[in-house]
Amino acid sequence: MACKLIPKRAYWVAFIYTVLVSHACNGFYPSENYMHTYSTGEEIYAKVNSLTSIYTALPFSYYSLPYCKPQMGIKKSAENLGQLLMGDQILNSPYRFRMNVNESVFLCTTNPLSEHEVKLLKQRTRDLYQVNMILDNLPAMRFAQQNGIKIQWTGFPVGYALPNSNEDYIINHLKFRVLVHEYEGAGVLIIGTGEEGMGVIPDAEKKQPSGFEIVGFEVVPCSVKYDPEALSKFHMYEYDKFSVNCPLELDKSQIIREQERVSFTYDVEFVKSNIRWPSRWDVYLRMEGARVHWFSILNSLMVIFFLAGIVFVICLRTVRSDLTMYEELDEKVQMNEQLSGWRFVVSDVFREPNHSKLLCVMIGGGVQITGMAVVTVVLAAFGFMSPASRGMLLTGMIIFYLFLGTLGGYAGVRLWITIKGTSDGWKSVAWSVAYFFLEFVLLSSLC
Ligand SMILES: *[C@@H]1O[C@H](CO)[C@@H](O)[C@H](O)[C@H]1NC(C)=O
Questions:
Q1: How many A from CA of 271 to the centre of ligand 1?
Q2: Cα gap 157→127, rounded to integer Å
Q3: What pTM value is reported for the model?
Q4: Best of 97, 212, 239, 270 to mutate for ligand 1, by most ligand atoms within 8 A of CB?
Q5: Any idea which UniProt keywords this protein has (predicted)?
Q6: Are residues 258 and 403 in the same domain?
Q7: Same domain, 343 and 423
Q8: What are the angstrom distances between the C-alpha of 274 and each of 100, 212, 357?
């Protein structure tokens, strides 16, 4: 009977599943996740993600602000479903790095800022928007000193706003520090212990590093006032001594004002590091505040267990006293069917509720969501969804939600059959399980 009922729709559903899954699978093994070694002088371009703010949840494209554009045009990086939903939009940038070349680079000078651009820049600055730059799949890390505490953060602000005035300053000079590690893979010679008389390997034959891996990417943002006339003789990537210490004085910083021309520069410093490639993400995962989260998780768990324990104890005592009471009653008035209390309720426990279908649908949906949460958390705990693969967590959640739809449907229909005693109407329950929470989410997102 079931076979006859497989409608054309089922094939469509299977097809859409396959498309979604294969699309999302692109995110499972992004090529950027493999180790890449660079030889000295090799060019690496940084990428830019959307501008984000912790105050407004709305991301904006990097090039919505008058920043320097890459010479070869703006290109998008491949995205997965999770990135799309997170509002990530990774674009190429003109920021060029040459492996192990310390340099100071001029990028461009903007046209005089228009009224609209000034308004936009000021707005983004005041909304605490930040630029998220990525080099070799590593987000730029910024270290700051705040009230004597060293804090680390990814990304750097669009600009500085002065609290008591209307003046804003744009970040136009970036001091990058790239940590590199000499790659000692294929090129390493195994040196004998000497006991077997292997002899000493001449210096020239000792291991030759076959390249450098990028293991850290730090940035110090500054606002520097340049003389646009003096800079006008430079072309993009022309070298000069732009290396400046970030000025603390406001009159040496680049103000955001109409008709002002903003020059963008950066300097790069490559520093050798002992950090190895597999541990380069450690510093991001050790972000401030992790301990606070553990504490609050523990706190809520304790409260939940405590309350559950109290309810359990109260229930236990009530049931016990009731049972002993009935046992005494039983001895006194045997065969009296007019009793109330637990006996009376027995027939009610397995009574069909008023809205049995709604109950089945909700339980099915609950099983689906709980299953998704459990699978995602477990896989994340095993490190399958590292933050190095952007958007992976969200993609995974969606995929698991899709697949666990079968489990949710099964649980809902199972309960339906238990309640009704027959399988009549199970299809409607199954379809409802599939759509109930989707509609719920869509409706709540519209509101
Ligand atoms: C680049 O600058 C860093 C820090 O000042 C220094 O340690 C390193 O040796 C420099 N590299 C080159 C190639 O000059």
A1: 6
A2: 10
A3: 0.70
A4: 270
A5: Membrane, Transmembrane
A6: no
A7: no
A8: 16, 12, 61
